[in-house]
Amino acid sequence: MEVEIACPKCDWQPQAGSRWQCTCGHSWNTFDTGGTCPRCLHRWHDTQCLSCAGWSPHLDWYRNLDQWVAEQLVAELQPVAR
Ligand SMILES: [Zn+2]
Ligand SMILES: [Zn+2]
Q: CB 3.0 to 4.6 Å from 27: which of 8, 11, 12, 19, for a disulfide?
């Protein structure tokens, strides 16, 4: 099943070129990293919509994603100690 990403509030869908800015000043596509800033590794639990400016929990943006898969996604994004 294909996972779609869209704002839970207004159904706006982020594009590949969409960028979010972290408080550290880095801007990146937050859906490439599951809401984690690649520079300072801050985890953004909520994601702001670039269209309606509303904040929603990051996982609420993913459609067709059941809870188990959502938990796997979160687990995968944990920094791995080697
Ligand atoms: Zn950052
Ligand atoms: Zn929105």
A: 19
d(CA 36, CA 64): 21
How does residue 71 score in pLDDT terms, banded at 50, 70 and 90?
Answer: confident
CB atoms within 10 A of CB 58: 21
Instruction: Give residue 82 CA to ligand 2 midpoint distance, Å.
Output: 38
Compute the distance from residue 7 Cα to the ligand 2 centre, in Å.
5
pLDDT band at 64 (very low <50, low <70, confident <90, very high): confident
Ligand 2 centroid to Cα of residue 34, in Å, is 17
**pTM, whole model, 2 decimals?**
0.75
- 81 against 9, higher pLDDT: 9
Cross-strand pairs, 28: 20
Q: Report angle CA 78, 80, 82 to the nearest 5 degrees.
A: 170
